[in-house]
């Protein structure tokens, strides 16, 4: 391609027009106003092109600007502004030639927008309006295709048919896709044939070879090329790697490495233990290699089992039943290995399973004795004499040596030594009397030991049931309280009752009920046995009356089915009650409530509790009444320990018949009827009575009696009180303090001697001292008058 082809010069067509200056002058003359008039443009702008990656030594010529106003007289100057003006692009001001100063890259910037203007060279006056044009960078094939997402990783199932999709690759070319073939990419495989192919336009990779086997080759590395220029010679190319893995499918059956496996196992191996391992190999992986092992029905199917180890897919042979060398020394059986997940597409390849033979030899081991039963159960009646044989155990040595066996009882299972065992014969006998009510079942452990090898022992459990001897007779289940209505019907069942027995077990016991022979002629009631360990009381007549007979006693004979059978006679108490027509009880005899047979323990306790509560209420009431009697009305604020009671009113002496009833003193019989408190002022006035003689014998006896009563009265106040009587005794050191003899007392008497009698009389001395002073003052006043 010649360089001149890229340096295109665009010639601008000039349009006929008058010069802008002339038009402007003419327009001004016609309009009579200054200024320019709009004119048609004198040039036409088109695009310029510049070649990218220009490597020449001189600036690259881009194009030429020209206006028809330029007459070649150098009066027009061309200016350039915009993208890259002055730095990338330059213009000759006189000729209008545009040059690129440096190499340009289209991938960096595809075009540049500039503005051009023609001005007067002298005045810089624009001759034409400024116009905009574009310089495009012309693309060349300078970028190779690139795989931005490479390298690629893909997978495809093995044994896939030809044309199976694997993956798609994509290459990107930075050149201009709209110009030439610089960005037209074509794909091809450089390495990876004949296994895979690629679509040259889309880059889709597919399988090209059928039945590729993962077990033969699992991974493939494919080299893909992308070339521009449509793949033509001279185009640029890029490559990427695609790692393709064949995923597994179940196309291989499991196979045993050998057809015969030989195992050895001791006869003492525990049930459930693993005794050997076999393995079938599967070339597949993952779930396609999972193997299931089964024992073909035959010799060892009932003795052995086989399971799969999920970690390494081995078959583990497990013992299902105990082995006995003396019974059978070898087992031979077949094991089948098959895939758990079969792909139906490959069933035509054959059966996906394999079979191997397993032979197991049992090794002889010196074993302990073996009992002929896993456990023993023996029965013995209670109270059986000591030394009685109740049973025997048998054990033998199954080994070839056939050593003798010795027996013993584990002392920890028979701490009280109830049993003994013959060490040679194995017979078990009682060592003591057995009581079922104490221990109903004994669990002992018998030990068998080989005589020539004491360390080899075996044990067996022996259960001894102590059978019950019928020791206790049956009795009524409870103290029944039976009521019969006066209007009871003939043949009516008025009570259902049962029985109990102290003998155990209670399960299986049968009781029968009947009327005693001596009471067969009872015309009132009879016993009916229901046959289910219960019976009923049945009336034999009508018309029961409480006023004639309130309570009936009915004997009943109860018999059990033990050996020997036991029986007892119980008594049922029947009370006659008044009932309504529907049979509901209205009232029964009051006396029957207190009968021991008719009252339960709870009822008696309730009655006693009520009685105690009533007694407590009575005692509390009495104590409150006594406490009220002890209270006395005292207006004095003095401490009661002074033993002086102050009254608001003082008696008037012997002539005062209002304070004391002298008639009462004469007649002691009416004292209790007319008894008044001496510490309270009477509310009723008594009529005056004539004075009585102080020498009367009945008065002295009455006063003496009242003194004794006051001394013995527990309800008297807890302090001394002053009691006044018509008759007083003689010989008092303090003499009489009563108002009865106050007439004879000298008003001028000095009471200071009371102060010498001690603290108890200080208050009394103060009272009388004040009275003396008051009387003296009054006397002096009268004398003054």
From TrEMBL:
Residues 67-147, 148-256, 257-371, 372-476, 476-594 form the Cadherin domain. It is found in: Cell junction, Adherens junction; Cell membrane. GO terms for molecular function: beta-catenin binding; cadherin binding; calcium ion binding. The chain crosses the membrane at residues 593-624. PROSITE patterns: CADHERIN_1 (PS00232), CADHERIN_2 (PS50268). It is a single-pass type I membrane protein. Keywords: Calcium, Cell adhesion, Cell junction, Cell membrane, Glycoprotein, Membrane, Metal-binding, Repeat, Signal, Transmembrane, Transmembrane helix. It holds the Pfam family CADH_Y-type_LIR. GO terms for biological process: adherens junction organization; calcium-dependent cell-cell adhesion via plasma membrane cell adhesion molecules; cell migration; cell morphogenesis; cell-cell adhesion mediated by cadherin; cell-cell junction assembly; homophilic cell adhesion via plasma membrane adhesion molecules; morphogenesis of an epithelium. Its main location: other. One of its GO terms (cellular component) is adherens junction. Cadherins are calcium-dependent cell adhesion proteins. This is Cadherin-12. It comes from Oryzias sinensis.
């Amino acid at each position: 391609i010649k360089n001149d082809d890229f340096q295109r010069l665009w010639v601008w067509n000039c349009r006929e027009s008058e010069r802008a200056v002339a038009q402007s002058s003419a327009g001004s003359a016609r309009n009579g106003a200054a200024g320019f008039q709009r004119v048609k443009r004198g040039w036409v702008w088109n695009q310029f092109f510049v070649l990218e990656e220009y490597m020449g030594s001189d600036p690259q010529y881009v194009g030429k600007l020209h206006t028809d106003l330029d007459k070649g007289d150098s009066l027009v100057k061309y200016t350039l502004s915009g993208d890259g003006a002055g730095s990338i692009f330059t213009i000759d001001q006189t000729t209008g030639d545009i040059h690129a100063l440096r190499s340009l890259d289209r991938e960096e910037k595809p075009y540049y927008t500039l503005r051009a203007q023609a001005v007067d060279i002298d005045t810089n006056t624009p001759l034409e309006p400024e116009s905009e044009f574009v310089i495009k960078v012309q693309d060349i094939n300078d970028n190779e295709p690139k795989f931005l997402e490479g390298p690629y990783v893909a997978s495809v199932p093995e044994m896939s048919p030809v044309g199976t999709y694997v993956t798609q690759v994509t290459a990107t070319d930075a050149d201009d896709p709209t110009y030439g073939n610089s960005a037209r990419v074509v794909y091809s495989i450089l390495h990876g044939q004949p296994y895979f192919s690629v679509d040259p336009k889309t880059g889709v990779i597919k399988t090209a070879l059928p039945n590729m086997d993962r077990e033969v080759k699992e991974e493939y590395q494919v080299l893909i090329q992308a070339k521009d220029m449509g793949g033509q010679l001279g185009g640029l190319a890029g490559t990427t790697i695609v790692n393709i893995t064949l995923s597994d499918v179940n196309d291989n059956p499991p196979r045993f490495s050998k057809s015969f496996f030989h195992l050895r196992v001791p006869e003492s191996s525990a049930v459930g233990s693993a005794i050997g391992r076999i393995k079938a190999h599967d070339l597949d992986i993952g779930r396609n290699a999972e193997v299931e092992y089964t024992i073909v029905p035959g010799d060892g199917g009932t003795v052995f089992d086989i399971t799969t180890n999920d970690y390494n897919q081995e078959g583990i042979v497990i013992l299902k039943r105990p082995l006995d060398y003396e019974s059978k020394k070898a087992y031979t059986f077949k094991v089948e290995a098959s895939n758990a997940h079969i792909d139906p597409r490959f069933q035509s390849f054959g059966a996906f399973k394999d079979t191997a033979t397993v032979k197991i030899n049992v090794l002889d081991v010196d074993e302990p004795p073996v009992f002929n039963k896993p456990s023993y159960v023996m029965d013995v009646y209670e109270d059986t004499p000591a030394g009685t044989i109740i049973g025997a155990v048998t054990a033998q040595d199954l080994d070839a040596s056939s050593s003798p066996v010795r027996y013993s009882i584990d002392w920890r299972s028979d701490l009280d030594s109830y049993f003994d065992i013959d060490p040679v014969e194995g017979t078990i006998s009682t060592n003591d009397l057995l009581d079922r009510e104490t221990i109903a079942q004994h669990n002992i452990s018998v030990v068998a030991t080989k005589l020539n090898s004491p360390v080899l022992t075996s044990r067996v459990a022996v259960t001894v049931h102590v059978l019950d001897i019928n020791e206790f007779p049956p009795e009524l289940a409870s103290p029944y309280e039976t009521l019969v209505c006066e209007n009871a019907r003939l043949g009516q069942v008025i009570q259902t009752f049962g029985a109990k027995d102290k003998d155990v077990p209670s399960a299986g016991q049968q009781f029968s009920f009947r009327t005693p022979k001596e009471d067969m002629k009872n015309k009132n009631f009879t016993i009916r046995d229901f046959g289910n360990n219960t019976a009923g009381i049945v009336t034999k007549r009508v018309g029961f009356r409480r006023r004639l007979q309130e309570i009936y006693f009915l004997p009943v004979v109860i018999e059990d089915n033990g050996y020997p059978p036991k029986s007892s006679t119980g008594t049922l108490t029947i009370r006659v009650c008044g009932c309504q027509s529907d049979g509901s009880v209205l009232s029964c005899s009051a006396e029957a409530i207190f009968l021991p047979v008719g009252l339960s323990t709870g009822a008696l306790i309730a009655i006693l509790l009520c009685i105690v509560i009533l007694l407590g209420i009575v005692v509390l009431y009495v104590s409150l009444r006594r406490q009220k009697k002890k209270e006395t009305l005292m207006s004095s604020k003095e401490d009661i320990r002074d033993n002086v009671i102050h009254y608001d009113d003082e008696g008037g002496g012997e002539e005062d018949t209002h304070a004391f009833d002298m008639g009462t003193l004469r007649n002691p019989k009416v004292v209790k009827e007319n008894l008044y408190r001496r510490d309270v002022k009477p509310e009723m006035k008594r009529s005056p009575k004539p004075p009585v003689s102080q020498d009367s014998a009945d008065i002295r006896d009455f006063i003496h009696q009242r003194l004794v009563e006051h001394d013995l009265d527990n309800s008297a106040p807890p302090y001394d009180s002053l009691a006044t009587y018509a008759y007083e005794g003689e010989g008092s050191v303090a003499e009489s303090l009563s108002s009865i003899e106050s007439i004879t007392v000298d008003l001028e008497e000095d009471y200071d001697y009371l102060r010498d009698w001690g603290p108890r009389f200080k208050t009394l001395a103060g009272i009388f001292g004040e009275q003396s002073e008051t009387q003296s003052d009054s006397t002096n006043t009268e004398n003054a008058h």
